[in-house]
Amino acid sequence: MAQTIAEKLLTRNNLKGEEVRAGDFLEARIDGAMCHYHASEPMHDMAIEAGFENGLPEVWDRDRIFVLLDHHQPTLSQKLADENALVRREVERLGIRCFHDSEPGIAHQMMLDYGLVRPGELVVGNDSHTLGYGAINAGATGITRADMLYVLLFGELWFQVPHSVKIHLNGTQPDYPIAKDIILQLAGLYGEDFAQGMSIEYAGSLVPQLSIDSRVCLSTHGVELGAKFAMFPADATTESFVKSRTGKPYEPLAADTGAEYAREIILDVDELPFVVAKPHQFGNIAPVDEVLGTRIHQAQIGSCANGHYEDIEIAARVLKKNKVAKGVRFIISPASQQVYLQCLKAGLIETLIEGGAQVITPGCGICQPRVGFLSDREVCITATTRNFRGRKGSQSAEIYLGGPLTVAAAAVAGEIVNPKEVLRGL
User: Fold this and answer.
1) What is the Cα gyration radius of the chain?
2) Which of 111, 178, 360, 368 has the greatest count of CB atoms below 10 A from its CB?
3) In the chain, what is the straight-line distance between the N-terminal and C-terminal CA atoms, in Å?
4) 3-state SS string for the chain
């Protein structure tokens, strides 16, 4: 029978070698496991609680476990420094070969930068935004630390095959990134739980036009819609990206004609307005025209969803002819050192700094209450991942989510504006 991408993925990795359908339970072979700064818990603390006196006695495959110390590079406290030191000791003791230690950046972006994940693979990570690898046709999902302990020992994990929702994106890609507006619009139209426990498959005439950066944004935000996976088909763009980073073989996945979907959604991006998520919920969506004139104190571009080259490039384009408004802190954080280097070579960093932006160390800090805290009643507009109350410090601060062009336009205006006003001058 015809299968969706998720059904094919889990059939391929089913330890019993049997075909599975949506709703089936199975034990699946894991192709790769991503551990970030929480690695100390499954490798050491939880392993001791499970009865291993000195931590994990061994790991299932030293070449398929990827440890990347993100979130806290450079470390911000003695406690974090001690935790990172523990991870270093455990990685050496267990003989794990892939270890990115003192390199600032976001683990998810680094997994892609270094070709550690490939199309058609089943990859798990101890972070909710692991879904982002679906941009290159991988089945990727976040798991608990207890599940990661099991994966590190055995290289397998149980799954229930998710039902799938197919999202057709039709229209033409403009000369600026719109992925954030797409995902916010979907949340606004259908609710931020419309893909709860499901696998999202992207299709439609827009997909071949989307950069990997845009696909990563859409796949990463699958978790904000409740999804288990969020996957794109493999195409020439995928192949070019992957083969420039790894020579290892891979076998992409494609849905069969006639595969059954729990739901199909069609979105025409040519009619897509610029939108924002108002405080304090991802699905609290409004067109920017409804919040025009909202005074801002801080603007941000970064995170695993929007810290990519194209997100930073549009900000540099805006600041080429404009300056950050007085009283606004415009903070930009590349998703990884590789993205940072790409921006440097393209001359973007100089433009950003001359325009009044602050470019900070790559990493997750910009997305969380670690960098750029907000004071009481301050307002921030950000192209990061989440806007719940207290995400950036003060419980009375307000956070709006928007695309990088919307954020950059607000940074130079000092308030939320329709980015079309800025586009006319670019």
Assistant:
1) 21
2) 111
3) 51
4) CCCCHHHHHHHHCECCCCCCCCCCEEEEECCEEEECHHHHHHHHHHHHHCCCECECCCCCCCCCEEEECCCCCCCCCHHHHHHHHHHHHHHHHHCCCEEECCCCECHHHHHHHCCCCCCCCEEEECCHHHHHHHHHCCEEEECCHHHHHHHHHHCEEEEECCCEEEEEEECCCCCCCCHHHHHHHHHHHHCCCCCCCCEEEEECCCHHHCCHHHHHHHHHHHHHHCCCEEECCCCHHHHHHHHCCCCCCCCCCCCCCCCCCCEEEEEEHHHCCCEEECCCCCCCEEEHHHCCCCECCEEEECHHHHCCHHHHHHHHHHHHCCCCCCCCEEEECCCEHHHHHHHHHCCHHHHHHHCCCEECCCCCHHHCCCCCCECCCCEEEEECCCCCCCCCECCCCEEEEECHHHHHHHHHHCECCCCHHHHCCC
Burial class (CB in 10 A: 0-12, 13-18, 19+), 343: buried
Q: Which residues contact 418 (CB under 8 A, 6 or more apart)?
A: 274, 288, 289, 292, 409
Domains parsed from the chain with CATH numbers: 5-267 (3.30.499.10), 275-423 (3.30.499.10)
- If the chain, 426 residues long, is cut into consecutive pieces of 10 residues, what is the mean pLDDT of each piece? 97 98 98 91 94 95 94 81 91 96 92 98 97 98 97 98 98 97 98 97 98 98 98 98 97 97 98 96 97 98 97 98 97 97 98 98 85 94 93 93 98 97 81
Token pair 């336009």 is found at 409
Interacting residues of 160 by C-beta distance below 8 A, sequence separation 6+: 23, 24, 25
pLDDT at residue number 74: 82
| Amino acid identity for residue 165 in this structure | V
pLDDT given at position 188: 97
Q: What is the C-alpha to C-alpha distance for residues 296 and 288, in angstroms, rounded to an integer?
A: 14
Report which residue type is found at 189. Answer: L
pLDDT at 159 (0 to 100): 98
